[in-house]
Amino acid sequence: MKFNVLTYGCQMNVHDSDWLIRAMESRGWKAVEESEANIFILNTCSVRDKPEQKVYNVLRRLGYLCTSPGDFVAVGGCVAQQIGEGFLERFPYVRLVFGSDGIVQAPQYLEELAVDHEKRLVLNDFLAQYPEREGGLANPNEELLPPGIGTIPGQAFVNIMQGCDNFCAYCIVPYTRGRQKSRLSSAIIDECRALVKSGVREITLLGQNVNSFGMDKNGSDLSFAQLLYKIAEIEGLERVRFTTSHPKDIAPEVIKAFGELPNLCPHLHLPVQSGSDNILKKMGRKYDRARYLGIVEGLKEVCPEIALTTDIIVGFPGETDEDFEQTMDIMERVRFESSFSFKYSDRPGVAALKMMPKVPEDVAQKRLTRLQERQKHITRECLEELDGNDMIVLLERNSKWQEDGGVAWRGKDPGGRVVNIFIEGIEGHLPLGGKLVKAKIIEAKNHSLVGVKVGDLW
Ligand code: 5AD
Ligand code: SF4
């Protein structure tokens, strides 16, 4: 069967789609361009804006591509969890809906639906335990692909937990992804070991709130800090990262790890959401600006070069000019290297829906523009400070910029920054993705760095 996967949303969704592609390919299906596909898998996100509308628009478009009786669409992810049956009722060519936990069974049902053209179903039940996924990759006719290998050579994402128990006032995630479920630490460590053995050099541990790993009732024998130390000591693993972290749960041992573990990358994405105590309280974030700044100080003490990035919401209900100034102020104090910033958007069922007064759209937009403008300058200044430094870059793919006499490669430094490096005397087709190289930074651009190779590739 020829299939195409379209993904919206966060890293978790990207990773889910990646797993699904591999699971189907190991069953003999072929991932192809949309125009060649018979089966379309749409992985959706509902965290902001009007995602439902966007999904309906995409579904209408895919409807025109379902021309034979065997062609159909499967809708997965957070909007699927929210709308469920509704998709089957509105769109005759949607024949499978699967939510956060249902994805584990999706490969098996996709195969059944490809044969039985009458069948339609919804897989939206939440499971009590973390749903393990290895089963989807077993294929007696082919080499077993290690689970979780990303599309970037040498890098992999490993899920350590699913769901969230925090119920921040603006957030739909606890409703769409369900309660927090930690995965067994032994399964995580085994997966990481297998990945490193197969050539992976950088692992990113994934979860909605990785710092509360093991704190749910499915609890694990290890804390997140203990898990991190165990993974970092896997021989041959060059880099470890993790995302996302909630400031209220980050343990002193995790902060300490940034000073102790040589392969823990000096980068932390630590969503602050707001710099105002008043708004943080209304958001139900359970930390204040003093605590957040204390964490930042602790991190910079043990790891002065750490790159901090964040998420910020402007225009949360009741946000005053003074509250917003506090957010601008925390940006100056922390000097985030980059940030994702959003206007607050009402989501169904969340506590903030009923909070008043709502901030007018034009006020929220003005605040967002000002914040993003300031961020642009800080990002630029942070990158300029790195000019002249040597850093190790993990190569990913050919960069867009090319010249004669060699090939430019794009990779990432340990801080997670994009570095473009021109490597003289090599051919474009050489498989350098996944290789490490020492580079000297010679220029800072708005969002990336330019380097030259100063050491051997390994
Ligand atoms: N409105 C705006 N931004 C939101 N986020 C989550 N929910 C909302 C919402 N209702 C943002 C938060 C979160 C990121 C993934 O999306 O900043 O960290
Ligand atoms: Fe949403 Fe808060 Fe959970 Fe993050 S920690 S997923 S913002 S509820």
Automatic annotation (TrEMBL):
Q: Any stretches that span the bilayer, and where are they? A: none
Question: What cofactor(s) does the depicted protein rely on?
Answer: [4Fe-4S] cluster
**Which UniProt keywords are listed?**
4Fe-4S, Cytoplasm, Iron, Iron-sulfur, Metal-binding, S-adenosyl-L-methionine, Transferase, tRNA processing
- Tell me which residues bind [4Fe-4S] cluster 2: 164, 168, 171
Q: What class of enzyme is it?
A: transferase
Annotated Radical SAM core domain ranges read 150-381
EC number(s) per entry = 2.8.4.3
Q: Name one GO molecular function term.
A: tRNA-2-methylthio-N(6)-dimethylallyladenosine(37) synthase activity
Q: Enumerate the residues binding [4Fe-4S] cluster 1.
A: 10, 45, 78
The record ties this protein, via CDD domains, to: Radical_SAM
Can you give the residue ranges of the MTTase N-terminal domain?
Answer: 1-115
**Principal subcellular localisation of the protein:** cytoplasm
**What Gene3D superfamilies would the database entry show?**
Methylthiotransferase, N-terminal domain, tm_1862 like domain
Q: Which family does it belong to?
A: Belongs to the methylthiotransferase family. MiaB subfamily.
What does this gene product do? Catalyzes the methylthiolation of N6-(dimethylallyl)adenosine (i(6)A), leading to the formation of 2-methylthio-N6-(dimethylallyl)adenosine (ms(2)i(6)A) at position 37 in tRNAs that read codons beginning with uridine.
Q: How does it assemble?
A: Monomer.
Output this protein's name: tRNA-2-methylthio-N(6)-dimethylallyladenosine synthase
